[in-house]
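chain below, 527 aa
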Amino acid sequence: MLSPTELEQLWSQPSAKQFHAGPPSEFDNLEIFHRALAARYGEPRSLRDFLAKAQLASYEATRAQFEAYGSRTHRSEPATGVVYWMLNSAWPSLNWQLWDHYLDPSGAYFGTKKANEPLHIQYDYGDRVVQVVNRTLATTGPLMVTAQVRSVDGVVVGSDRTELVCLGRGETVTVAELTVGPPDGVSGTYFLELALCPAGDGTVVSRNVYWLSSAADVLDLERTTWQYTPTAEFADLRGLERLAPPELAATATSTRGSGRAHTSVTIRNASPAGVPAVGIHASLQSHGGAPVAALHDKPVFEPAYYIRRALKLFEVCRQELGDEIELLHDMHERVSPNQAVQFCKDAEKFKMFFLEDPLSPEDIAYFRQIRQQCATPIAMGELFNSPHEWTPLISERLIDYIRVHLSQAGGFTPSRKIAILAETFGVKTAWHGPGDVSPIGHMANVTLDLVSYNFGIQEYSPFNDRTQEIFHGCPVMKNGYLWASEKPGWGIEVDEKAAAKAPFTNSNGLNGGWGEIRRADGTVIKQ
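prediction:
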């Protein structure tokens, strides 16, 4: 994915613009991330060292975000939800993903998995206490809570335990009586190992290990921007650099049945000196020792695998979020027509707000099969160019939301006609509004929304500071609603002098930067 120069810049030149970090904006480099990483974990000494520290930081930060939500669901001012951007990226990216475009899980994935255990023990960084979270629908029996404090070398320097009578379903309990702070004489990095098991039974149902600092992070809240909050003082986790490589022992057992093989692998820390094993990641390799790879070096997308993971995601979302939260999912025309029909049928039970673009424009005849077999709401149209594409879908009521791109469909007037046609047949609007639409395009969307009785929902991407310096009068998001400018015309003025300071460059390359996506066997996947 990255050139040799980009790989070198990744760890040694954090202010360098990274094509795979983001478009020209506050997010096109790793400077903020690198500053915190170097201060907390130690200055990276090589690419491998940078990646190891980055994965630990990713695990630590993402676990904390989900655990913070779990710790605050029962407070007087409770947390009512958590937004994580994002599950996986649409193209090879360095930012914001639980697993990458190649379907490789990152540290963030494992941090999320740990934080969202059904019955979970965790450490509250803010109050420095232990909590137990019960996300199941059943009341637990008595539970034993154990905390061990270890030096950075793995030596136990403090231990405490207590018993909980029970936890009600969906309940979070703070175990304030446990001692979890750094013991006297420990300075810098130390470990906190938490374990939860049924009382009288040594079977551990939740184990959670934290690398902590005797000096905590201190946020500079007064200098908070829309993008991030600076850190005035950093925690000291540099003790991890002193850890010697652990000695690991692995065992594997395999079973076969129904034409499939299932292999379980157990990895054990066999270090005679008790050296902690931190940041260990297992990977599947071929018999010769090389990673199991595709027949090419491009991003891999397997439709069947994607469908299974997406349906599992919907299931977990409904279990965790209930039925009040709306779920929208973009299929991006990347599966075959028969797979799209089956996917829409299988997703029906999750009561989606809508599934977007299940079929390519050349396959729109299959919408009849989808409508005949399920009631899953469908949104379609961002790739449409001709009335011959949207007219039959609307007039035959084969879709529920029309999603054309206004400029691609011919402009405001043709799109107004589309909205009127859709209103006649009970189809709502959901105009295309991704991040590469200008503020004028977004304002055109909002203007059309305001005059469409059949308005459904509006896709919207916020504007960074530079964009708002050039385009005065952008739509404003307030409490989930977009507010249009009441000035004449589109209500937007373009500052040409400011625009001259940010010249357009076609740096995204072929296909708008989406790149080339193929199946493992080399088959090209549609964009």
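The chain has three domains: 1-114, 117-241, 303-513. Residues 246 and 277 are 6 Å apart (CA to CA).
thats it, cya
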